[in-house]
Design brief:
Substrate Binding Domain Of DNAk, Chain A, domain 1; six-stranded antiparallel beta sheet; five-stranded mixed beta sheet
Amino acid sequence: MPKLISSGEVPVDVDFYGLYLQDWDDSQVPVPFPKEWEAGPFVHARPGRLDFTSGGHTHTAALTVEVWDSEPPTPSGVWEESALTEITSASGQLEVGGVAGGPMPDPIYLSDQARTWTVRVCSAGRAEVAEKARHGVVQGVERYVFQFWPRT
């Protein structure tokens, strides 16, 4: 049975319809963000980096980050988008941020060691934030759940 190692909430400032995760040690990322960024599919995986296209231009999204010891069940709820991908983190920590606003001040801690992680990401509130973000900066409308577990 999968065991939850850690869980936390992280707000992230989204701009230009995008946000990203990449290794905290950007010297380990061959193409660091925002190089080659463009809005597109829900998730675009690159070595050491994951790019996400958001439903809204400028807003603060709510991220729930879960670290598991093995593959967990899919989070309950109704999701507008979901994807399964991988990321390698040499530092054991990830940077998260928006396109122009850059990284949030604190890293997302995964582990004390370098590892490749399987990542399930689910997102809701995308249609609602697309509408509301046209009229101002909104907070917590678009939600993401990131579930990480070691690749076997």
